[in-house]
Amino acid sequence: MVQQVTKGIKISVETTFEGSFYRNYKIQYAFGYKITIENQGKDSVQLQSRHWEILDALNNEEIVDGEGVIGKKPVLKPGESHTYTSGCLLTSPFGAMQGYYTMVNFTTTKKFQVNIPTFKLSAPFAIN
């Protein structure tokens, strides 16, 4: 598990390898990840959007931007957390993801970025 705290918001990430399959005559490696967002600050906040940089071992990079996470824009009061699971496909058995969430502080009405720590994606069969 990797963790990082930015401006009172703790991000924890756990990853899993889900398997591989062929699509359009190319092998795809499926990975899952579970993210917990915990408000350790003193103000209520809301997650507005996400930005992902997904890189595989072949140097293919994919940028993903979007509103919320899995269709939600959770509001977190101090001490609350939100956990969700999602996944990605890579064209190699190794890769990494990193990014940030854009959040708004309800007390100051200001937006701020919360870093998502870089986490590795690796298929267990490919590790020696």
UniProtKB/TrEMBL annotation:
Q: Which InterPro entries match?
A: ApaG_domain, ApaG_sf
Biological process according to GO: error-free translesion synthesis
Domain ApaG stretches: 3-128
Which PANTHER family does the UniProt entry name for this protein?
F-BOX ONLY PROTEIN 3 (PTHR14289), POLYMERASE DELTA-INTERACTING PROTEIN 2 (PTHR14289:SF16)
* NCBIfam families listed in its UniProt record: PRK05461.1 (NF003967)
Task: Write the protein's name.
Answer: Co2+/Mg2+ efflux protein ApaG
